[in-house]
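BUG: 3D viewer hangs when loading the predicted structure for this chain

Environment: internal workstation, default settings.
Expected: structure renders.
Actual: progress bar stalls at 90%.

Input used:
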Amino acid sequence: MGSLPRQIRRWESASCRQWRQPIRNEAARLAFRHPTFGSPTDSTKAGSEMSESVRSTPVNKKLDERMKERAISELLRAKSLEVAARKLGISSKTLSRWLDDADFLNAYQDAKRELLRVGVAGLTRRVSLAAETLGEIARHKGRPYQAARAHAASAIIRIALDADVLDNLETRIRRLETQRTDD
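Structure tokens produced before the viewer hung:
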């Protein structure tokens, strides 16, 4: 027990301070070696060439793509950009920078559209149930929560009709665009 404070003092001595400093260079961080096996100055000699080669490896690109896929998923679930960044373990500035990237933004918008289509398709499948609910409400007066049920049923029918109109417009626009490119 008496030697513990001496070891701590020895670790904090000037000769060991260099190992406690945060490593800011990416190449040095990835190639960092323990003092016993090599010095960090040996691993930083490659400098920026090593950093570039590390960034361009397929493994890092795959990890980056997976992280961006997780970011899209989290952006669709989270209430705000800050909450999504916190859950991902990245800064909100990084997430904002990714949203400025055209490819990431297109992938995010496509995922958001697909999520919306799935939700509307689920509501569209319930249109017949909504119509039956409205018919039941019209026949039986005085049941509990009729106003809420009527409002929900009419909202389902309205959303399904709007989705149908948008789908028809999208189909017509695509036909016109293909006709224009054929001419």
